[in-house]
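[step 3/7] inverse_fold.run input=structure_tokens len=465
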């Protein structure tokens, strides 16, 4: 059935205006000052802002890590995302341990099948580009509908790539037109600092941050930037946290390098002191890169405002406190890295950004949705409210005040990293391709209704090693 959303204020990355939206067959068919259609379901959005659905470019659902698995799978994770105003996610498909890259992609499809309630895509995560993997990559990207590759410079024992592998990935990205995403920390140096700390009896959660100082993020960021430029590739730096990394990105962009950057909500509103909470409570705030001293927050906000950083990812990677975070009770290096952010990404950025005057509503839309759509090949199907675009729309109440809490969130974890944070603004109803997933703050979706979104690489399909 057709739907008409009436009475709301439409906000895109470039415009704000009053208008009605006609939806049919999952697509926006018309936008006008007044649409009268007696055969359509009328959705009254009076007093609401109409945002394009949020696009979260950085999630880890049902992901094995540190001898455990994230607590939010494709059911709870996408439901929580929808409650938070996100209608599309791009998750990381881990290739380590899979016989072939296509096997890894098939595994991730099996994880999401019959569970996802919003649309989604995959990034392909690479740890070792041996000769066989290099031969597989072009076909895997094309057949898998994937246009982005992730490489880690951290987690030396699990995922860390060598500089050669990183450079090979950049060469592949350059030839195929794929975006190369890099987790920029120097994992080898971190391991040395961790061993020093433990040898000195320093085992509390705060040492997770102190053994991963900003300098190791800045160094790895510079290294990735220079190697990407040498290979002629587009670099996307994930979860930027500190001045050291921001400075390297700004310097490179000023030289004309093809560098993009993402940050995440916790780095904008939380700081390193959270890891000092007593009774092991600091373990709730262990993720990588770690939280930084508070002065780094202003650097990140300024970089977003000046468009030196383009996107906001959640880096959703949830591990419950009891039973999982507590695995590192006597050794901070055994605390599973990651936190629950997928549900609060949208509201935290709106409240801390728009309401507090740091960014405009249009800039909010650009960061939370449009830029990710453009960078990762989803625009204009996703990321805007326009005729011909998917009807992924959030009806948002900009006046409601609420307190974030684990008691009311929908993630499958026993704590919330933003516990007690008061925010202004809340998604009320969320539509994906014109169908309700959230209606009047209640789940109205269907498991498995989320669609996999294929993305095309921009260049040649052949790569020589």
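[step 3/7] decode complete -> sequence:
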């Amino acid at each position: 059935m057709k739907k008409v959303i009436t009475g709301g204020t439409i906000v895109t990355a470039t415009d704000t205006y009053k208008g009605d939206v006609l939806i049919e067959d999952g697509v926006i068919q018309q936008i006008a000052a007044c649409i009268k259609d007696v055969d359509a379901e009328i959705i009254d959005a009076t007093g609401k802002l109409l945002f394009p659905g949020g696009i979260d470019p950085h999630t880890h659902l049902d992901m094995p890590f540190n001898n455990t698995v994230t607590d939010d799978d494709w059911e709870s994770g996408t439901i929580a995302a929808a409650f938070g105003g996100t209608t599309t996610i791009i998750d990381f498909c881990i290739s380590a341990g899979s016989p072939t890259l296509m096997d890894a992609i098939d595994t991730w499809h099996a994880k999401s099948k019959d569970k996802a309630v919003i649309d989604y895509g995959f990034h392909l995560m690479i740890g070792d580009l041996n000769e066989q993997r290099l031969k597989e990559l072009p076909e895997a990207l094309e057949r898998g509908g994937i246009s982005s590759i992730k490489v880690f410079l951290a987690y030396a024992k699990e995922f860390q790539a060598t500089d050669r592998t990183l450079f090979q990935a950049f060469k592949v990205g350059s030839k195929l037109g794929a975006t190369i995403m890099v987790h920029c920390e120097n994992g080898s140096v971190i391991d040395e600092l961790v061993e020093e700390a433990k040898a000195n009896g320093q085992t509390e959660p705060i040492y997770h941050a102190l053994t991963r100082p900003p300098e190791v993020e800045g160094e790895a960021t510079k290294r990735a930037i220079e190697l990407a430029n040498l290979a002629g590739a587009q670099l996307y730096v994930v979860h930027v946290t500190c001045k050291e990394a921001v400075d390297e990105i700004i310097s490179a962009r000023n030289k004309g390098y093809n560098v993009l950057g993402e940050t995440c909500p916790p780095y904008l509103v939380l700081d390193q002191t959270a890891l000092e909470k007593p009774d092991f409570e600091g373990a709730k705030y262990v993720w990588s890169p770690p939280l930084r001293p508070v002065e780094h927050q202003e650097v990140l906000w300024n970089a977003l405002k000046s468009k030196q950083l383009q996107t906001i990812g959640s880096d959703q990677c949830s591990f419950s406190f009891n039973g999982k975070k507590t695995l590192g009770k006597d050794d901070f290096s055994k605390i599973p890295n990651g936190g629950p952010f997928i549900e609060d990404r949208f509201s935290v950025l709106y409240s801390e950004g728009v309401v507090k005057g740091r960014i405009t509503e249009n800039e909010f839309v650009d960061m939370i949705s449009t830029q990710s759509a453009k960078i990762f090949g989803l625009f204009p199907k996703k990321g805007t409210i326009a005729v011909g675009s998917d009807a992924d729309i959030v009806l948002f109440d900009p006046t409601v005040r609420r307190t974030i809490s684990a008691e009311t969130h929908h993630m499958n974890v026993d704590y919330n990293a933003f516990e007690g944070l008061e925010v202004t603004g809340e998604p009320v109803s969320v539509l994906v391709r014109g169908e309700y997933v959230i209606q009047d703050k209640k789940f109205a979706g269907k498991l498995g209704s989320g669609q996999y979104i294929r993305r095309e690489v921009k260049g040649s399909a052949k790569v020589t090693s």
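[step 4/7] annotate
The chain has twelve helices and 21 strands.
The radius of gyration is 21 Å.
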